[in-house]
């Protein structure tokens, strides 16, 4: 089973191949990807590395976490699972439905829909 590793606070000069070579010292690297900005094409300063086994991944994490790369102290940890995507508008799936309140009579607001 492969283990996915998060690598943060990367210098913008780091590429996929240099990231892969740094982790290859500890074992077989399945993939290495530096995340890039869609509009500018520059690095976002973090990436992910997939290693062949959990033991190899843990050895790489403990050896590389806090290491200085081009003057920046990198953060290396196990990647967390991606959270479920939320609606980009910021509103829930319920939309603008009225709340079901027992203390309000004759409707849910509007003209004459309040408390009597």
Can you characterise this structure?
The mean pLDDT is 83. It contains 2 helices and 6 strands. The protein starts with a strand and ends in a 38-residue tail after the last strand. The longest helix is centred in the middle third of the chain and has 11 residues, at 54-64. A hairpin with a 2-residue loop joins strand 4 and strand 5 (72-73). The chain is an alpha+beta fold and 116 residues long. Helices cover 17% and strands 27% of the residues. The protein has a 4-stranded antiparallel sheet, covered by helices on one side. A two-stranded antiparallel sheet has the order 4-5.
Task: List the topology elements.
Layout: E1 3-8, H1 16-24, E2 29-36, E3 43-51, H2 54-64, E4 68-69, E5 72-73, E6 75-78
Antiparallel strand pairs: 1-3, 1-6, 2-3, 4-5
Key structural traits:
alpha+beta, about 120 residues, two-stranded antiparallel sheet, 2 helices, globular
Short description:
The chain is of the alpha+beta class.
Number of helices: 2
Termini gap: 65 Å
Shape: globular
Instruction: Let me know the number of strands.
Output: 6
- Stretches where pLDDT is under 50 for at least 5 consecutive residues are none
Instruction: State mean pLDDT (0 to 100 scale).
Output: 83
* Largest beta sheet: strand ordering: 2-3-1-6
Rg measurement, Å: 24 Å
What structural class do the secondary elements suggest? alpha+beta
Strand content: 25-35%
The run of helices and strands is EHEEHEEE
Helix share bin: 10-25%
Largest sheet, in brief, is: 4 strands, antiparallel
């Amino acid at each position: 089973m492969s283990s996915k590793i998060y690598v943060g606070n990367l210098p913008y000069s780091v590429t996929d191949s240099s990231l892969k070579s740094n982790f290859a010292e500890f074992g077989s690297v399945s993939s290495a990807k530096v995340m890039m900005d869609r509009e500018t094409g520059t690095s976002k300063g973090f990436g992910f590395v997939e290693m062949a086994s959990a033991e190899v991944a843990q050895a790489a994490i403990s050896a590389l976490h806090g290491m200085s790369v081009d003057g920046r102290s990198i953060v290396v940890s196990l990647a967390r699972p991606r959270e479920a995507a939320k609606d980009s508008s910021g509103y829930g799936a319920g939309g603008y439905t009225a709340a079901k309140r027992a203390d309000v009579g004759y409707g849910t607001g509007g003209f004459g829909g309040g408390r009597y």
